[in-house]
């Protein structure tokens, strides 16, 4: 099973992903680590990325996911995956039964509060509105409230995936 934790900045994708990985023993990949330096600089400056900026990044993330699939491995990726086209790129060539998108949902107000406490991250909090505007809510994703603690969110995800809590 490949799990792609998706959502706008500040929803807890990284925190939840690392905790989910520790609970399942599956590898975790942080999508932000695969951005080019140019992309990171744009976001830090408060300039939203466009589809052209994202294309090589998404292709690289697809390679990570497809590698897991080819090796028969499970894994967890944290990636915004805001548009359906991005999700299509990420999952290309992987059978639908082998992956799940999990949309972490948090209110804009709660995210703004989280971002105000975030340090050492290149994402400019001013991009939150553009991310919400870009988000195309998927009809086929598992939707999970991430308003609670990371532990509560992971428990919800494991339940939705049909996996035991003590994996």
UniProtKB/TrEMBL annotation:
EC numbers, comma separated = 2.7.1.12
Task: Please list which residues make up the signal peptide.
Answer: none
List keywords of the entry alphabetically. ATP-binding, Gluconate utilization, Kinase, Nucleotide-binding, Transferase
Catalysed reactions, semicolon-separated: D-gluconate + ATP = 6-phospho-D-gluconate + ADP + H(+)
What does the record give as its pathway?
Answer: Carbohydrate acid metabolism
Has the keyword Transferase been applied to this entry? yes
Record's Gene Ontology CC terms?
cytoplasm
Q: Which GO terms describe its biological process?
A: D-gluconate metabolic process
Q: Which principal EC class is assigned to this enzyme?
A: transferase
**Gene Ontology molecular function, alphabetical:** ATP binding; gluconokinase activity
Q: Which SUPFAM superfamilies match?
A: P-loop containing nucleoside triphosphate hydrolases
Q: Does the keyword Glycoprotein apply?
A: no
Give the NCBIfam families listed for this entry.
therm_gnt_kin
The family assignment reads: Belongs to the gluconokinase GntK/GntV family.
The name under which this protein is listed is: Gluconokinase
The source organism is Acidisarcina polymorpha
């Amino acid at each position: 099973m490949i799990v792609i934790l998706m959502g706008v900045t500040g929803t807890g994708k990284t925190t939840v992903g690392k905790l989910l990985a520790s609970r399942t023993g599956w590898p975790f990949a942080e999508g932000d680590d695969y951005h080019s330096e140019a992309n990171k600089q744009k976001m830090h400056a408060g300039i939203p990325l466009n589809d052209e900026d994202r294309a090589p990044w998404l292709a690289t993330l697809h390679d990570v996911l497809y590698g897991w699939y080819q090796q028969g491995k499970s894994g967890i990726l944290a990636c915004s995956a805001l548009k359906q086209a991005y999700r299509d790129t990420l999952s290309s060539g992987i059978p639908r039964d082998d992956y799940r998108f999990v949309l972490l949902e948090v209110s804009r107000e709660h995210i703004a509060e989280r971002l105000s406490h975030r340090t050492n991250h290149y994402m400019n909090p001013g991009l939150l509105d553009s991310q919400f505007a870009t988000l195309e809510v998927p009809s086929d994703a598992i939707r999970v409230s991430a308003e609670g603690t990371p532990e509560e969110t992971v428990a919800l995800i494991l339940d939705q995936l049909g996996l035991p809590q003590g994996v």
